[in-house]
Amino acid sequence: MPPRKRAKVAAPRASRSAPVPEQKNERINPLTVDLAVVLGSEHPLRLERPIVVASGPLGFGNEAGAAIDLRDVGLFVVRGISLRPRFGGLMPRMVEVPGGLMHAVNRENPGADEVMDRHGASWRSAPCAVALSLVATSVKELAQLIERVERRADELGIAALEIDLTAPCDGLEGSRWESSADESLRLIDTARGATDRTLIAKVSSAASELRRLASESIDAGIDVLSVSGSPHGFLPDRARRWPALAAGIGELSGPLVRPAALAAIAEAASGAGASIIGGGGIGSPADALDTFAAGASAVSLGTALWADPRLPGAVVDSLRRAVAARGETSILVLRGSALGSRHE
Amino acid sequence: MGSTPVAGELLAIGELTPGRIALEFRAPTLIAGLRPGHALHLVRPESGGYRVRRVAPVSRVDLIRGSVEVALQPRADGGQDALAGLRVGDVIELNGPIGQPILINKGTMRLLLITDGEGFAWVRALADAATRAGISVTMLQQADTAADLPPPSLLPDVVEIVVATTDGSIGHRGTVAELLAEYVPWADQAVVAGGADIRAAATSAALRRRTTDRTSASGKPARARTAAAGDRAPWLQALLSHEIGCGIGACGGCTVATRAGQVRLCREGPAIDATGSTAKRST
Fold it and tell me: Looking at the domain that runs over B6-98, which CATH code has it been given?
């Protein structure tokens, strides 16, 4: 089924030339800077802070509140859930690689119902917005999963649904949804037909036809494109007798993915109608500023939170100072600031 | 993450087995809660400013020095380890304890430890604690050659050390698997830590022992085995290590499936009931 055409709604976006904002002389108190962003337009999602906790590193919910201060976060994305339980495979599931780490957890989860039963209370009481990351290997499975989730989404305070296009697709013989823009758009269209909640599509820097996906996904019904997924990686073990991960191919996180992630964010931003959450290898406030400069409206933090639980707060402080230093009071001034040509 | 980080000053750098670095940190506020089987997360900036939480088993606790010794596990990719470049006096962030202690039943008087160069760090602290508690400890050690073995001086004198080397340069020529039949009937409990080969051998021995016990129970028991009240540890516990992760049981990076359900090594591990696990390739 082709994606249903929707009336195009012009989402706020960075200008391609993105001239460097004029420096103003008046001194701005960083505390007066407004960090709130509205992602999407047809089904908008307001985040009080443009900080997203990526799906996965902090689990389903119960553990996250004890691990970091969610008051510094705008959106917590729950670790991926599926209609039925998924097993994560054998150990080793996570190893260190030069410049980061590689993992193969296979989106392990006990199934949507059990996750909602066990963690729903923590979502209701969270001081930030909460999104569920949905994992489905077919269009039909996603439709059933959304139907299951929608029964309880209001009660549990779910603000948005993330469609994980980095998950495997049966129709593509186990390759990721994102390896086919057509299949991705078909999945998004199905999701939009099943919910009125804000829809986020998560892709990695390795997504095929990213510019097309970015520009056409809004027609298919997406509100936010999250360019924060992990690209694939492979490494032999020390003896080169086995893969380092039991699963063989894994997913990469950490500084090694950052330049590729920034390129993907910039590419998506140049063609997007949807708002962009940018992520991949962000380990410091400076990395977060780079991600805004590449065109993101919000930044996604992942495995760096394990060693630095205070990173969201540090990013918030850094954003306030960066906006104030430009003599502005809105975070929007930072978005896409590096996308202009040096020769213009 | 999870526990409050503690600043640990590096007091000494040593070697447990060739190529296995041990780091001793002063961390008096941390050591009171450490037990055999626990690990710490070591956090030090890596290149590019990215920090990972590296799992390091606690190999010794010195209450007098207020210090804890941990062992660095080699990286799977064989990459340069920034932690190996630490110098005495450097201070890094320690998080812990990670995981649960190894359970030793009250009635256990004879403890069998089965290990290799990879697993030695995980059971060294247990050998110390068990002998202090008056438990007889025998450690079966596996290595390719004599030079790969840990120095006997790292263990209490009362620990019986039995060695198997592949090249026969010391001890039994072959593997510890060939020694298990002799020692398994002696032990009240056993713990295996190391590579997949010795874990599989120990697990097979434990399953054979269980079958033998059932057979004996149907006739005249060959040997009385009475479990003390409150005993809950399985006869064989396997220690499974992992390299990195969140440390709070959230990320799924260290989860193994057992007959009793999913076990997160950083929370419910690292010791699991070896005869109930389906884990095969954990390192």
Answer: 2.40.30.10
